[in-house]
Amino acid sequence: MNRFLVVICLSLLALVGCKKTPVDPPVLPEPQADGGYVGWGRPGGTGQNVWLEIAQPDTGGWLSRILYGGSLSDVLVTDVSEGEDTVRFEYSRGNTYRCLGVVTGYAITIYILEPAGQPTYTLNRETAGLNLSGEWHGRMFSQLLGDWRDAELFVDQQGSLFDGDLEAHMTLYDILGDVNDGAQEGVGFFVSGLTPIANADSPFRLDGSYVTRDSLAGMWQIALPNGQDAGDFAFLRRF
């Protein structure tokens, strides 16, 4: 065989041998309607924390309840698709709300079919009864100030993805931060992110645990341009 042809063949073999094996995307959890879902939505047109539970007891049928605005209402599940990826339900809260829930492994998106004109919202699935999603109000202790300050934490936790905001005014500086990372294991969790201080992004982090399903406590810290601050925190989530 011609030496030139041998070189070409060897080059082609090398290219074939170096071809990367396609990486399959991660397998998402199968939809499963039953479970607890929590987050921030606009039921009745008002923005607030919402909790929804859909349960299928051993006796058969479906049971459901929804909590927001200080009231817990029983929900009538009228239809669940064969693959449990859609749920039709209704409940009365002044008006009769007829809803369609589209279920994924991590969340349920709620479409209000009646009354017309109500906004769609999404609630995230709880794991072992816990999920950080929603609006939390509380206090953060600053070691620099030697005092507590009011604070607000908003989290959108969908599976292992965390997003949200943290706001606290510490007199010497303000935290107006974006939460962009986090993790939860059992009752323990952390969330972290960045906040602009003195024309630079300062990293912050909260490490804590659930005291109850709707109360958190732990330690926080922030890296400042000329040092750091840290302290305790405590937050409550109200419905």
Number of domains: 2
Global geometry: elongated
Terminal-residue CA separation: 80 Å
Number of helices: 1
CATH domain class of the largest domain: Mainly Beta
| Strand order in space, largest sheet | 1-2-3-4-5-6-7-8
Largest sheet at a glance? 8 strands, antiparallel, barrel
Structure summary, number of beta strands: 16
User: Structural class, please?
Assistant: mainly beta
CATH fold-level label of the largest domain? Lipocalin
What Rg is obtained from the alpha carbons, in whole angstroms?
24 Å
In the CATH classification, which architecture of the largest domain applies? Beta Barrel
The CATH homologous superfamily of the largest domain is named Avidin-like
Helix content: under 10%
Question: Which spans of ≥5 residues are poorly predicted at pLDDT below 50?
Answer: 1-21
Indicate the mean pLDDT.
89
Order of helices and strands: HEEEEEEEEEEEEEEEE
What does this structure look like?
The chain is mainly beta and 239 residues long. The chain has 1 helix and 16 strands. The strands form 2 sheets. The chain has an 8-stranded antiparallel beta barrel with strand order 1-2-3-4-5-6-7-8. An 8-stranded antiparallel β-barrel has the order 9-10-11-12-13-14-15-16. It starts with a helix and ends with a strand.
